Amino acid sequence: MRVMSAPTDSDFATRRRSQLFDELLAMFLAEGFAHFTLDAIAARLRCSKSTLYTLASSKGELVRATTIHFFRRAADDVEAAVAEAGTSRAKITAYLAAVGDTLANASPRFLSDLAAFAPAREAYEQNTRIAAGRVKELIDEGVAAGEFRDVHAAFAADLAATTMVRIQQGAVRGATGLDDAGAYRELAAILTRGISA
């Protein structure tokens, strides 16, 4: 018989940190973050500034940590969507659509603040590079399975990455009017049709 241990202070602290990051993320996604002070953040979260300092040493670090939290959670959601897809084409479509769905939760103000704040922008750029690498893996799998033409997977992934960076920088929105989520869906459709066998 398995004996359950009582929750420890460490367990509570970990759950509380996760809860605070989730609340911060929801607030930032809806309203952006540039205009908030640490005092305003603490008031909105109904916690002390000292509690915020347990999460990060400054507002900038708090924004960066929350952005990383966003992308880690998004990566889990995106990979869950890929795991449910059967074919390589469905996996790429699921991957890019899930990225778009994740970004659909972000307000224009959040995306604007993200682009203007270097540490958060760097986290977005790193996530975009990781996503491009993942798209390349999925293309390679599709080529090996005979589902895709024998395309140069690195080039196709680079093409996707270039578009992803333009989406991230707001250039696609400015040029086409597509929001980030819509742009990712269009990218999935064009990419998978273009490389299908």
UniProtKB/TrEMBL annotation:
It comes from Gordonia neofelifaecis NRRL B-59395. This is Putative transcriptional regulator. GO terms for molecular function: DNA-binding transcription factor activity; transcription cis-regulatory region binding. Residues 14-74 form the HTH tetR-type domain. The keyword Transcription applies. InterPro entries: Homeodomain-like_sf (IPR009057), HTH-type_TetR-like_transc_reg (IPR050109), HTH_TetR (IPR001647), Tet_transcr_reg_TetR-rel_C_sf (IPR036271). Keywords: DNA-binding, Transcription, Transcription regulation. Residues 37-56 bind DNA.
